Amino acid sequence: MPWDLKIDLMVEGSVAVDPFGGRVGKGGGFGDLEFAILLETGAIGRETPIATTVHEFQIVENVPMESHDVPVDWIFTPKRLLEVKVKRPKPKGILWELLEPSRMEEIPILSALKERREMG
To answer: Does residue 59 carry a pLDDT above 90?
Structure first.
């Protein structure tokens, strides 16, 4: 499966973020999975900047993060731009052990990526 797509900046939707790049989406983990899929295909790298747009009141003190959660590097509000100075680690790709089997049916590219991975 050849991929020529290269993405220079990824924009994630957020319900809330913290000054350290922690973010909460709408739930379901689709934003995190999108990042992992793009990483697996080589369209992005772990160094690719991730940005989000929120209102000032959506910036909170702390957002708990898990191993599959993707932190942001840039936070845009109507009043300012915040560059996250202390970087949290980004996931290394799809965490297959955390992926629910129903996702494979919902998102066909996951089956193709898993097959490619297993073939080496």
So the answer is: yes
**Is 1 part of any domain?**
no
Residue 89: C-alpha distances to residues 19, 37, 65, 107, 111 (Å): 15, 17, 10, 25, 26
| Structural domain containing residue 48 | 10-119
How far is Cα 108 from Cα 119, in angstroms, rounded to an integer? Answer: 17
User: How many domains is the chain partitioned into structurally?
Assistant: 1
| Average pLDDT estimate for 37-50 | 93
Provide the mean pLDDT of the chain. 90
What pTM does this model have?
A: 0.86
Residue labelled with tokens 């702390």: 62
Q: How far apart are CA 106 and CA 85, in angstroms?
A: 36
**Rg (alpha carbons) of the chain, rounded to whole number:** 15
Query: Does residue 4 fall inside a structural domain?
Result: no
**β-pairing verdict for 23-24 and 16-17:** antiparallel
